Amino acid sequence: MKLITKEILKKLPLLKDLEDPVDFETIVPLKLFSPVGQATWFIMAIDGDSKELNENTILYGLCFLSTPEFGRVSLQELKAVQLPMGLKIERDMSWSIDSTLKDANNYLKRNGYGTIDWLVNQKVNYHEKM
């Protein structure tokens, strides 16, 4: 399965162009997940100077492994993850490219993971972390 389609790539901004700070209206065009466990990545941007996907591509978004946090993840590392029974990280094909952080928050709440209200309301300024 292709993790990032051409349609998703068009919708993903470069991190330097993402509105700062993020809020519940921030677009989240890509949701990746582990089919075993709760690991989920809500991808909002590509960290770099170009949208060319390669082995050095770094993505930025809301990463939920055991607790939610905004951060970066390597596309190559996500592709290389080997899960039990030969499974791999997958793209949620039902996730709309027009989804927002509010949709991510609702997904987490609906699936018993809690909410990210507190995290988004901190007004995380990711440009200061660069």
Write the layout of secondary structure elements.
Elements lengths: L5 H6 L18 E4 L6 E8 L10 E7 L3 E7 H6 L9 E2 L9 H10 L6 H4 L10
Antiparallel strand pairs: 1-2, 1-5, 2-3, 3-4
What does this 3D model show about the protein?
The radius of gyration is 14 Å and the shape is globular. It has 130 residues and is α+β, with helices and mostly antiparallel strands. The protein contains four helices and five strands. The chain has helices spanning 6-11, 75-80, 101-110, 117-120, and strands at residues 30-33, 40-47, 58-64, 68-74, 90-91. It has one domain.
List keywords for this structure.
single chain, 130 residues, alpha+beta, five-stranded antiparallel sheet, 4 helices, 5 strands, globular
Strand content bin: 15-25%
> How confident is the prediction overall: mean pLDDT?
91
SSE arrangement, N to C: HEEEEHEHH
Shape: globular
- Structural class label: alpha+beta
The major sheet is characterized as: 5 strands, antiparallel
List segments where confidence is low: pLDDT < 50 over at least 5 consecutive residues: none
Rounded to an integer in angstroms, the radius of gyration calculated over CA atoms is: 14 Å
Query: Considering DSSP H and I runs of 4 or more, what fraction of the residues is helical?
Result: 10-25%
In a nutshell, what does this entry contain?
This protein is α+β, with helices and mostly antiparallel strands.
